[in-house]
């Protein structure tokens, strides 16, 4: 028997409505939080349909891109746990292609991680098959690190008010980082791997730091909300502290073709499902959200710079005048907008470049249809 999943009942209603559509098959993502004790699924979201046809039974590339975009927008503590499919085909026929799709999905999402996985990370993903004729569900899990691992049956149980007793951690971290660009990789098209190397050093500093929860250092094996009322939503303010010795990097002399300075504040929100979360688990999720938030912003601004550069080359505009300009070229970072979406007080981080609130809502509706 595989892992058990406690599922918010709004997911049942959402899947039932999808079963009423004539389009088949319908694929999508399952979003929630897993831990050593139990797994929670709080949302399902359909993968948008492509205009092109003839992509096979499951559009693996499109599902992976959907997963990458959704993963970027999720608040701390929530992640993509697997996929669902609505089709009247037999479960045996769909498991093999879905298993390969989930493996590629995990590679796509984890390729943007700047942290090192830990031994207590859950490595099982879920595949949910829903038959549209009678809405019966078949749930399977497998080891994501071994694509050939056998599929295990898993318990899929709907429950109301799963999100009613969430704990939320809030944290604000000021950032002032100077990342060097080597002389041979200073071009816009080569900046991404160079900046990732620098961000990995900063990410390691965050991982080596420690957290204060409500101005207190809580032992790793103690419950985060110990002594507080059960079944009530708790809000905990956290501080991330980096020891001074960890901030001093080893001096390295290298040819430098430029630099990028990153300044601002990271506002993080981490949601913890369940009332018995340990301090160690909460600290891990908070640090990962801080790191992924900054990494996503850097990736977004690089995409924007690359697009602008390609547009200039395509239109034949002369950039010499711009290159002669000395001094830094400031760029505004995209901001996090915490917007309510499906589920009880469920919030998502929206990172839409150069967009106002209306654009953010439209972007959210596209990915979380």
UniProtKB/TrEMBL annotation:
Keywords: Membrane, Transmembrane, Transmembrane helix. May play a role in the trafficking of a subset of G-protein coupled receptors. GO terms for biological process: intracellular protein localization. It is found in: Membrane. The keyword Transmembrane applies. Belongs to the ODR-4 family. The keyword rRNA-binding does not apply. Pfam families: ODR4-like. This is Protein odr-4 homolog.
